[in-house]
From TrEMBL:
It comes from the Bacteria. Pfam families: SH3_3 (PF08239). This is SH3b domain-containing protein. Residues 45-97 form the SH3b domain. Residues 1-24 form the signal peptide. Coiled coil: none annotated. Keywords: Signal. It comes from Rhodovulum iodosum. The keyword Signal applies. Gene3D superfamilies: SH3 Domains. InterPro entries: SH3-like_bac-type.
C-alpha cells in the first residue's frame, strides 16, 4: 500500500513524464535524414532558392546525398538542409526524396 507521500511522488513523476516529449515518438514520424533517389547516376537533383523550377539553382545534389527534411510545401516541394552543412538550405522536389 502506498503512503500519501509516495502517492504524491508517484503522481508527480507521472505528470512529469506526461509533459516530457517522447523521443521514440519523434523518430517514429520518419527518418532523421532522407536520401536523394530517382536521379540517374550521372545526374543531379537541383537544390533551389524557392519552391519551384523558376527559382535559382543553389547546388546540384548527387544520388544518395543525405538531406534533413525541414518542411513540406503544399505544392510538392520540400525545404531541406544538407546533412554535412545544415546552414545550407533550399528546396527540392519531394518526389526525389526517399528513406
Amino acid at each position: 500500500m502506498l503512503t500519501t507521500r509516495s502517492t504524491r511522488a508517484a503522481l508527480g513523476l507521472a505528470a512529469a513524464l506526461a509533459l516530457t516529449p517522447a523521443v521514440a515518438g519523434a523518430t517514429a514520424d520518419g527518418p532523421d535524414f532522407y536520401r536523394v533517389t530517382g536521379v540517374a547516376a550521372d545526374d543531379m537533383l537541383n537544390l533551389r532558392r524557392g519552391p519551384g523550377t523558376g527559382f535559382e539553382v543553389i547546388v546540384g545534389l548527387p544520388p544518395l546525398r543525405e538531406v534533413n527534411l525541414l518542411s513540406r510545401e503544399g505544392n510538392g516541394w520540400c525545404l531541406v538542409s544538407l546533412r554535412e552543412t545544415p546552414q545550407l538550405q533550399g528546396y527540392v522536389s519531394c518526389r526525389y526524396l526517399g528513406e
